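Hi V.,

Quick status before I head out on leave. The structure for the redesign project is tokenized and pasted below; the design run finished overnight.
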């Protein structure tokens, strides 16, 4: 019985490790009024966005919306792409895991009043 439990724990450990490795991180820096990355191209998959507040002087956030949908309508926002809390000046915040499929999206920060930028998933 102990061997069986050990094998199950080992298999589950590998499963969790390989799932964790499938999550990619993308760093997006914000300066006053803009993101420094004006466009992104990613492959399909699961991501965590690291949002870097580079001396904006106020808290910043992150909004991701499928292209063609109204960005003003919060129902169109990909909620898992919101930062877990507003990112304080000169700090880094993170989103939850976001699974992206092929297509185009727009990203922006309503707190920092950035333009909308294009994120393409191939």
């Amino acid at each position: 019985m102990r061997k069986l439990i050990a094998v199950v724990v080992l298999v589950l450990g590998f499963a969790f490790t390989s799932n964790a490795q499938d999550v990619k991180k993308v760093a997006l820096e914000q300066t006053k009024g803009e993101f420094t990355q004006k466009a992104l191209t990613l492959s399909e998959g699961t991501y965590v966005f690291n949002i870097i507040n580079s001396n904006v002087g106020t808290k910043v956030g992150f909004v991701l919306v499928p292209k063609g949908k109204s960005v003003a309508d919060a129902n169109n926002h990909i909620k898992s792409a919101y930062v877990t809390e507003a990112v304080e000046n000169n700090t880094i915040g993170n989103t939850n895991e976001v699974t992206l499929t092929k297509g185009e999206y727009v990203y922006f920060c309503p707190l920092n009043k950035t333009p909308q930028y294009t994120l393409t998933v191939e």
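Above is the designed sequence. The CA atoms of residues 41 and 120 lie 5 Å apart.

G. will cover questions while I'm gone.

Best,
W.
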